[in-house]
Amino acid sequence: MTPPDRTTLEAVARKWTLRETEERARELATEKTVRAKDALELYRPYNVIQEEFHRSMASELLLRGGNRSGKSTASLVEVASAAMRVQLHAADGSLLPMKYPTNRPLTIWTIAYGEKNINTPIHRLLFEPGAFKIIKDLKTGEMRAWNPKSQSDVAREAECQQSPPLIPERAISDWAWKSWAARVFMVCRLKNGTEIHAFTSNAKPKQGDPVDLILIDEDIWYEQHVAEWQARLSDRKGRLIWSAFPHGQNNALKDMHHRAEAQKHLKNPDVWEGVLTFSKNPYMDTDEVRKRREGWSEDEARARDLGEFTDDVVQMFPMFNKSIHCVEVSDRPMHRIDDILVRNGLEPPNDWTRYLILDPGHTRPAVLFAAVPPPELGDYIICYDEIYGRNIDAFTLAERVLDKASGHNFEKFIIDARAGRQTPMGFSWTIKEQYARAFEQHQIESNLTDSSFEDGSDNLPARTEMIRTALHARNEGPPRLRVVAERCPNMLREFVNYKKRMRAEAILDEPIPKDDHLMSCLGYLVASNPQYVPPQPAKAAPSAALLEFQRWQKADKRHDDKSMHFGPAA
Fold first, then answer.
1. Which of 171, 354, 358, 566 is the most buried (most CB within 10 A)?
2. Rounded distance between C-alpha atoms, residue 344 and residue 46, angstroms
3. Is the pLDDT of residue 569 over 70?
4. Of residues 1 and 558, more confidently modeled
5. Which burial class, exposed, middle or buried, applies to 279 when counting CB atoms under 10 A from its CB (0-12, 13-18, 19+)?
6. pLDDT digit string (tens) for 330-373?
């Protein structure tokens, strides 16, 4: 067989080169088409703050905002841009500057408050569809970001689709999972060599590794870790991004905020801060914004909408107002209920129904005295007196109760059920039994519970809501709950200091553990639905000598000495 001549070989080579070129061109065209539909190509910042955030060359960037303000989306878009080496676009479609190296793999850390926060929002926004909405352009027929400021786009909102993942699956090499089912990952390695690590803020900071970019999402457990994370960035002149709800008790966050404030007049600051608001997020439905705003108190709205620091807490009962809810001696015309109390020396008349509520506490037991007037005077609950003990036992508290309860008839006594069931170390009686014995020895009794107690409600959310209902203003007359200010100073203090903690993912309708004993008493009271019952005649108060005699009678029978001493011998 005759071998091919040189001309034939060159022709074959040219043919194969042309075929490879065409195939490569088709591959590139396909890749370009695919990449044109990538989320990072479609993304557009929705306002000036987001665009300034993506433009800023500061080494520390704080994006602060309320719920659903867009801070997490913008921050994780920035992370994806660095990891994928993709330039972002401004709102007008022009390219934003590329701030991260593109000639080598990057090491990126994401810091979440806890493991569940690695899933949402970090994994969800980076690796799952739906970071923002997209829609088909009527002119080009191509997909683009949905523009909520465009009337035509708003009219076509039903045609919107979820954006693809910020980091598509084709770019991922492999994963290291803490929990695949819960989408809690440790490392995501990309085919370009970049690694995205996920840590929780309660873990000890990893030592030694140089890092290009660190994202802190929301709150952290230990604020001292921030300095260690910052140190990891120095070798590579990396950046720290903090996307945060205004957690006022986080000193590291507030320090970053103050440093940004001090540098905001500089052209090229080291620390930049932007604030995003819930109500100005055009992607949020206006009716939903209205409903959320109406449901928030002023402090909640400042934090959850405007992104302002409010020391991380809001009042549990912001509707409480001393001028509205308190009975005070005044020269001004008073409501009938207040007038009766003032004329009676701030003491409920004997024909009102009285209740006593006890919160044993650990070191500060508290007692609330309340009364319900006859129905012809209206539907009211009057908190007229209190005891706020400090390091006193059941018998000492009973003596103080006797001073205030003597000569009055009580319908029933109520106690904190959870604390009442506990048996302190070294005792054979429960706390409830100890107080019942102390009340019995002092002959303090009620109509329904004798010297013992009815268990108060354990349902904290229900108690809280019932207090709010009792505090609400009414069309006729004062609110149902009235407090005698002069006799209940500690209760007034607790109303002001009784606060709940706010997290970005939820408003926790639970109090921050603090001195809230009288608030607990008030909750047990309103949850018991106190009613007016015509009081029975009160028993005469026992004399001190009789009490001492009865205490002696019940003393330990093992003692041989049967004598009783009332004072020094003659």
1. 358
2. 64
3. no
4. 1
5. middle
6. 766 678 899 999 999 999 999 999 999 999 976 789 999 999 99
User: Which alpha helices (H) appear in 236-376, and where do they start and end?
Assistant: 251-263, 286-295, 298-304, 322-325, 336-343
Contact between residue 123 and residue 185 where contact means Cβ atoms under 8 Å apart = yes
Cis previous bond, 121, omega within 30: yes
Q: How far is CA 82 from CA 103, 128, 216, 426, in A?
A: 12, 18, 15, 62
Q: What is the DSSP letter of 402?
A: H
Structural domains in the chain, CATH included, are 44-128+165-309 (3.40.50.300), 322-553 (3.30.420.280)
Give the helix/strand (H/E) hosting 386. Answer: strand 381-388
Chain centroid to CA 507:
4
Q: Parallel, antiparallel, or unpaired: how do β-strands 499-503 and 506-511 relate?
A: antiparallel
Report the Cα–Cα distance between both ends of the chain, in Å, rounded.
146
- 3-class state of residue 99 by DSSP: coil
Helices (H), 264-304: 286-295, 298-304
Indicate if the pLDDT at residue 538 is higher than 70: no
Three-state SS across 210-273? CCCEEEEECCCCCCCHHHHHHHHHHHHCCEEEEEECCCCCCHHHHHHHHHHHHHCCCCCCCEEE
Instruction: Choose among 412, 410, 420, 402: nearest CA to 360.
Output: 420
Q: Return d(Cα 143, Cα 367) in angstroms, integer.
A: 67
Mean pLDDT, to the nearest integer, of 514-533?
Answer: 91
Query: What is the sign of the dihedral through the CA atoms of 351, 541, 406 and 424?
Result: negative
Per-residue DSSP letter, 213:
E
Beta bridge partners of 275: 64
Backbone phi, psi, residue 485, to 5°:
-60, -45
Residues 6+ apart with CB under 8 A from 377: 336, 337, 340
d(CA 387, CA 488): 9
- Which pair of tokens denotes residue 508? 């926790």
